[in-house]
Amino acid sequence: MKKILISSIFAVATLFATATAFAQDAQVTLPSAGLTPSSPFYFLDRFGENLRQFFTFNRETKAKLQIEFAGERIAEIKIMVEKKGVNAKGLAIAESLLKTNVAYAAEIIDQEKTSGKDVSVLAKTLNDEFDLRDKLLEQTFKDAKEQLKAQRKEIKTKLLTEARSVGDTTQIAVLEAQLKDIDDQIDILGQKKDQLENSLQNEQENIEKEMSEDDQKKEEIEQEEEQEAEDIEEAKEIDEEVDEPKETKESQETDEKESTQDSNSSDQNDQNTNETSNND
């Protein structure tokens, strides 16, 4: 009985450890961005990476190193977008290096396959590791867009309404210019996101095609599910953007109505004053 109990406890512990390990593997955090391409000392960061790459002789390890470097590029993109927005200095450099990292990983897999090795397991490992980091890249652009939309809403629903209510034409012009700038940033952000994702997808497909057929089918199903979720999210955003101007227009009409009422009230008071003066 005691042996059975011990065996049961051991089995449960093993199952728990396996589940925990799986959960940890399914999550990834970005490394510290450190120096970014906007820094004049960024070449030191690149020099260190090149040294690591030079002294890594095993091809599989070198391929995995590229995915690690890709994570660092994503961390750099994240910090630059958060601090400086879509026009951040050095952002294009980080994006270009990110594509280079993924392309080199795919190239190493091709070289290994050409040498006669079975690369299906390596391809699956690299693809899974990059997928996790790629999701963080998508979240970076999503967070940046949400921040811009929040700024736009603040201006439209509060600041612009207040300026209109007091008839401050100068402030209204300034706020409307800010709204246009925010809309432009949102458009540029979307374009950068699409361009970068398309470029990365092209390189990642070179990795995916070397996976086993079963893994490729699973990957296709996952991509379809992700695309459906993304389409739903985009449709929701479009609905929100369509509704937002209505609120602003109604608010503007209310302000104009109140302003007209105040003006009419003022005119009526002036008229009453004049009539009283004439009677006297």
Automatic annotation (TrEMBL):
Q: Where is the signal peptide?
A: 1-23
| InterPro entries according to UniProt | DUF5667
Q: Which residue ranges are recorded for the region named Disordered?
A: 206-280
Q: Where is the composition biased (Basic and acidic residues)?
A: 206-220, 245-260
Acidic residues bias locations: 221-244
Question: Domain DUF5667: where?
Answer: 34-128
Q: What is this protein called?
A: DUF5667 domain-containing protein
**Species this protein is from:** Candidatus Doudnabacteria bacterium Gr01-1014_77
